[in-house]
């Protein structure tokens, strides 16, 4: 099965080793992708562990688990990365994530900030950005790989 984060790798060779704790994400983008996958599989423990300690007070396992029950994550698109590579102290990742909640389709467009402390990347926070409008010839939000006009023409 391809990884939830949209890479061409299998889940067990892409994000699962980070989520399971077998390896640390080497870059801010790898952490972003693995956090998206953790939302997709409902792993609150990883989401809290990869959150900067200063932010953990405002996020609880219970609130994360509640959000899992009503949300199906459909696809992730990385728009840009700034710094956040191996050996760098911080980075940013702009992404677009599509989700389904009941019958509603939504998108989360965010520029996330990450820091690397003790060789571990951590999510700090992010700025919510305006939703992006997809064109008919863009890939569909659902992750099918088809053009929007062919997959979900409405």
TrEMBL record:
Q: Which Pfam families match?
A: SEC-C, YchJ_M-like
Q: Which residues form the YchJ-like middle NTF2-like domain?
A: 27-126
Q: What is the superkingdom listed in this entry's lineage? A: Bacteria
Coiled coil regions in record: none
PANTHER family xref list: ADENYLATE CYCLASE-ASSOCIATED CAP C-TERMINAL DOMAIN-CONTAINING PROTEIN (PTHR33747:SF1), UPF0225 PROTEIN SCO1677 (PTHR33747)
Q: What is this protein called?
A: YchJ family protein
Species for this entry: Zhongshania guokunii
Upper classification of the organism? Bacteria, Pseudomonadati, Pseudomonadota, Gammaproteobacteria, Cellvibrionales
């Amino acid at each position: 099965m391809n990884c939830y984060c949209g890479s061409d790798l299998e889940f067990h060779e892409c994000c699962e080793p980070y989520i399971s704790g077998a390896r640390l994400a080497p870059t801010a983008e790898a952490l972003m992708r693995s956090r998206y996958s953790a939302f997709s599989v409902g792993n609150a423990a990883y989401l809290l562990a990869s959150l900067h300690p200063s932010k953990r007070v405002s996020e609880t396992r219970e609130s994360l688990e509640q959000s899992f029950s009503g949300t199906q994550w459909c696809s992730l698109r990385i728009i840009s990365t700034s710094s956040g590579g191996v050996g760098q102290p911080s980075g940013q990742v702009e992404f677009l994530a599509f989700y389904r909640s009941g019958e509603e389709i939504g998108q989360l467009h965010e520029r996330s900030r990450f820091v690397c402390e003790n060789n571990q990347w951590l999510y700090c926070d992010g700025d919510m950005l305006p939703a992006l409008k997809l064109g008919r010839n863009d890939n569909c939000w659902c992750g099918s790989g088809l053009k929007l006009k062919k997959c979900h023409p409405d």
